[in-house]
Structure to design on (108 residues):
């Protein structure tokens, strides 16, 4: 076997080893989801009693949630996309989107 290939194989395997070392526990995922839900609900100031549905894992860098509810001072049901920066632990919330225009059927 060519000995020059061993260092290259080790370097190629490094990202997989680092990812495995940083794998989160079930409790850590639950804590992340709870923080995303809490901060996204607070950020949804246009919604009365906002309800957040959190993506259980999000992306590598972001937690994601859909926040829905009745718009303050109006009728109907709206949804907002919420993005949580995992490093900064901050959120940004998107515009109000009418559920009917999205084609969602409201739960009864």
């Amino acid at each position: 076997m060519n000995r020059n290939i061993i260092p290259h194989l080790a370097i190629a395997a490094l990202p997989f080893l680092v990812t495995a070392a940083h794998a989160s526990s079930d409790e850590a995922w639950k804590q992340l989801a709870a923080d995303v839900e809490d901060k996204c609900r607070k950020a949804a100031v246009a919604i009365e009693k906002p309800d957040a549905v959190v993506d259980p894992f999000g992306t590598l860098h972001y937690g994601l949630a859909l926040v829905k509810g009745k718009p303050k001072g109006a009728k109907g049901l709206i949804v907002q996309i919420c993005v949580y920066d995992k490093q900064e632990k901050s959120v940004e919330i998107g515009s109000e989107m009418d559920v009917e225009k999205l084609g969602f059927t409201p739960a009864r």
